[in-house]
Amino acid sequence: MIRFLTSIDLALKRFFDRVELSTRVSTRQLALFRIFFGALLLSYFLPSWSWLNEVPPGFFDPQFLSFAYLTDDFLPGSVYVFFDVVVIILLLLITLGIYTRSCLLLLFLLSSMLYSYSFSFGKVDHYTNLFLFTYPVLGFTNSGTQFALRKDQALPARTQTISLIVMGIIIAFGYFNAGLAKCLSWIDFDSNTSGFLDWVYYCFFNSENQYLLAPYVLKVPGYLFEPLDYLAALFEVSGFFFLLKGRKYWLFYLTVASIFHLTNLLVLNLSFALNVLCYGIFLVSPVLTLLYQKYRNSYADKVKYFIYAAMIMAVFKITVLLTDLPVYNYHNYAPFIYFEHFMDFLLWSFTIVCGVILLIRLPKIAKIDKR
Amino acid sequence: MLSKFQHIRLLIFLIVILGIPYTLRLIDYRLEPFPSIILPFGSNKTALGDEVRLPSNEIYGYTMDGQLKKLEKSRFLQNIRVGYFDYLYEDRFGLRDFNGHSFRTTRLGIPVKLKSKISETDIQATKIWIRQRLLEQGCTDSVLILKKDLIVIPRNGTYYEETTLMNDTILDLY
C-alpha cells in the first residue's frame, strides 16, 4: 500500500514541480504586488454592499449552496454599512502592510459571505470568482513580510510555493470548466449556428450592454464569427497545457487571456477586470520589481506621501458611506458606466503591456530576483 | 505516514475546492456553490438564418390616460444590474407562487426542495416598492404587466421589436 501511495505521490510531484516552474514569483515581487492590489481595490474596485438596503425583500432568491441561503432575508441595512467600513479599513491595512495575512484571510471570509447577498437575485455572477480566491492565495504567501509597516511572520518558502501553484491551477481550471462546455457545443463545423453571436445578443438585449463596439457587431455577417467560436473554446480549455509547458508559455497564456478580456470588454461590455488582480500576481508583479529597481533611490522619500494618500482615500470612502452621498460601487453603479469602461480598458491594456514586457525581458527580471 | 504524501494531500485539497463544486455545477446550475472556481459555461448557440428572432422579457404599465407604456428596465431596477432582470422576471419580481420552488436536478434527477424565503410581509413591502417604480415612470400604480416581446434581427443588423399579445401576466399591486 505504501509503495503504491509513494508511486502516486511521485507522479504528482512531477506534475506539481512543472506547475511550480511556471508560477514562481519572488517574495519581493509579491510584496510590491500586495501594495498594487490593496491600492487598486481601495481606490477603484472597492466592493460595497450597502446598496442592498434599497432592494425589496421579495427579490431575495439566494443560491442554494451559499451563505445567504442560511438566512431568511437580506441582512439589516446597518450590517452592510458596518461591513463596508470594515472592508475599507482591512484594505487600507493590506496596502500599508499591517497584519496583512490576517486581513487577507478575513477579507476572503467577509467577501464570500457578503457577495452571496449581492448574487441573491436568482443567479451567481461570475466576475468575482477568480478574484475572491486571490485573497487566501496572497494570505498564504509572504507578501506582508516586505515593504510593510508591520511585517508578518514569514511562512516557510514551501507554503508560498504551494500557494502560487494553487493559484496557477485555479486560473487554468476556471478557464477549463468554462471552455469544456463550449468545446462540446460550439465546435460543430456548422456556419449556420454561432455561439459567439449568442453571447453578443444576450449581452446586447438582455443585459443592455450597448456601449463601445457592441452596436457595430450586430451589423457584421454572422458566419464571419464562426472561427471565433473555435478560437474561444480552444483557448479556454488549453490553460493546463500552457501551465505545464513552462513559465514563458504560462505568461503568454495570461497575456492572451488579458487580450481576450479586453476584446470582450469592447464587444460584449463584459470586463471581468477584477481578474487583473488575479493574473497580476504573475504578470504585473515582476514589472513592479523592474519599476522599483529603476526608482529605488527616490523610493524612501515617496513612501510617506503614499501612506498619507492611502489613508486620505480610506477616510474619504468611509465619509461617503456614512453620509447621504452616492456610494460608488464597482460593477453596480450605473451613472459611472463610461468611467468604468474607460478604467477597465486602461487596466487590461496595462496588464497586456506588462505581459509583453515580461515575455521580452524575462531573463533580466530573473537576474534581478536572484540578487 | 500521511505527512509524507504531501502531493497526494495537495491533490485531495484541489479536488475539494475545485472538483466538488464543478461536479455540483454539472449536475445542475442551481447547485453551483458560492464561492467556487466556476466561470461562465455559456455554451448556447444562435441559429443564423435570414433573420434571428429572440424572445425578450418586457414590463409594461398603464399611463394615467390608459395607454400601455413599456418601462425602462434599468430605471425600474434602480441599482440592481439589468443582467438580473430575466431572473427577477421569472420570479415574478418576488410576487410569484413559491410552491414551485422545488426542482429535480437536470442531471441525475435528484429532488431538491428549497425553503421559501418570502413572507406575506415581504410581498407587501415589494408591492409598495414596485408601485413607486411605476409612478416614477409616469404610470398608474395598480398593475405591472409582464410580456414577452420578440426582437427581430435581419441580416443587415438593424433590429426591431415586435410586440406580441401572448403570454401577458398581470401582477395586481393592491
UniProtKB/TrEMBL annotation, chain A:
Transmembrane segments: 31-52, 74-96, 103-121, 127-149, 161-187, 227-244, 251-268, 274-293, 305-325, 345-362
Signal sequence region: none
Keywords attached to this entry: Membrane, Transmembrane, Transmembrane helix
Keyword Metal-binding: no
Protein name (Swiss-Prot/TrEMBL): Vitamin K-dependent gamma-carboxylase
Organism: Pricia antarctica
From TrEMBL, chain B:
Protein name: Uncharacterized protein
